[in-house]
Specification:
about 375 residues; mainly beta; 5-stranded mixed beta sheet; 4-stranded antiparallel beta sheet; 2 helices
Length: about 375
């Protein structure tokens, strides 16, 4: 579908030399590193190479246009086009990252075009001066939400690349070689060099934090359905358990945004209602300005406390009981309710049955009744 889209420079296509030929691949250039197709129009393909070429076809490969000369801002020497990402919103839109670390230039280079490569804009913004880039991804749900993989970590921009925030927490300062966004789960999947695969669960709250949305006093985001699964563990006596990755937290993830003004407008409360509209749990609530996420442990609706029980409570998940955890809720439809300053926001979600447990609905109801009687 194409001629040779590289420079095909003979000087970059020879053996490394030496007493014994020891080609590692780094010596040899003129290779396509990245290909992307427009999700808006079939046949619009972009190609980037490790000898600095950016090529475009708009007819499925019948003809190609070299748009490399239109990109300004590079120094002399080789430019590795490490990733190209076609826009989900503009037919002629494209993002690309370039690495020049092989010529001792460790600066981040990232560019965007919206007119099929005729003009380009740098999105370097306030990225650190030291940290070349491996990849870029655009959220399919929010054109201003961008993710960049650097040699020194993951960076996120919510304003189309003007400002970048390093993703910290327990995420290591490590080379991020690839980023994918799961189309169904909206999970951010991060491939690192040397520290395995990391997943940020459900980035829909990030996708929903538009410039207009954050003017609201508070936002309660959609809640993903939560599986009521049984905890399992596999013990391997021949390996270090430290190599085992962490699973997603158990329970229902409830994400919400609080404007700083919300903290002054009155009481803030998060509760869970059962299918009959009864409040069965009040999960632990964080009240920090910005984006918050808490997990309900799927327990609630405990038996009434005996007289004189005082204020005994069990579990950060907010399932209330006397001297212990409440019983698990039954599979079905539930509602998260966030109250801020007298205004209530609601989101419906489901507790999903784990088919591996093999319980009938009658057995689940009997087990819940027994648990409450025992409490």
């Amino acid at each position: 579908v194409s001629p040779d889209l590289t420079t095909n420079d003979p000087a970059k296509l020879k053996d490394s030399g030496g007493i014994t030929i020891d080609n590692t691949g780094a010596e040899n250039h003129c290779t396509i590193l990245t290909i992307t197709e427009s999700p808006l129009k079939a046949g619009v393909l972009w190609v980037g190479t490790d000898d600095g070429q950016v090529q475009l076809t708009r007819d499925g490969g019948a003809t190609w246009e070299n748009v490399t000369a239109n990109i300004k801002g590079f120094g002399p020497g080789d430019n590795w086009v490490t990733r190209m990402e076609a826009s989900h919103f503009v037919e002629g839109g494209i993002y690309l990252t370039v690495s020049r670390h092989q010529v001792d230039d460790y600066a981040p280079y990232i560019f965007k075009s919206e007119d099929f490569g005729k003009t380009w804009t740098s999105l370097r913004g306030d990225l650190p001066d030291y940290g070349y880039l491996h990849t870029v991804r655009e959220s399919p749900s929010n054109r201003n939400l961008l993710f960049v993989g650097s040699e020194f970590g993951l960076f996120i921009s919510a304003d189309g690349g003007r400002r970048w925030i390093p993703y910290k927490g327990d995420f290591p300062t490590v080379a991020v070689r690839d980023i994918q966004i799961h189309p169904r789960e909206h999970d951010l999947i991060i491939g690192t060099h040397g520290r395995g695969v990391w997943i940020i669960d459900d980035i829909r709250p990030l996708e929903g934090l538009t410039a207009e949305a954050v003017k609201a006093e508070a936002i309660l985001f959609d809640v993903k359905d939560a599986p009521l699964f049984s905890y399992r563990t596999t013990v391997d006596n021949y390996s270090d358990t430290g190599y085992a990755g962490a699973n997603s937290p158990f329970g229902a993830a409830i994400s919400y945004y609080l404007n700083p003004s919300a903290l002054k407008s009155g009481p803030i409360k998060l509760s869970i209602q059962d299918p009959d509209g009864h409040e069965i749990a009040t999960p632990f609530l964080t009240k920090e300005p910005g984006l918050n996420r808490v997990y309900w442990n799927l327990r609630g609706g405990a038996a009434p406390e005996p007289s004189g029980a005082g204020e005994a409570r069990g579990g950060r998940g907010g399932g209330r009981s006397f001297g212990g955890l409440a019983s698990y809720a039954l599979p079905g439809e539930y509602k998260a309710v966030l109250e801020v300053g007298g205004r209530a926001m609601e989101k419906t979600f489901k507790i999903l049955e784990d088919p591996d447990q093999g319980f009938t609905a009658e057995e689940r109801r009997a087990g819940q009744a027994f648990s409450r009687e025992a409490q």
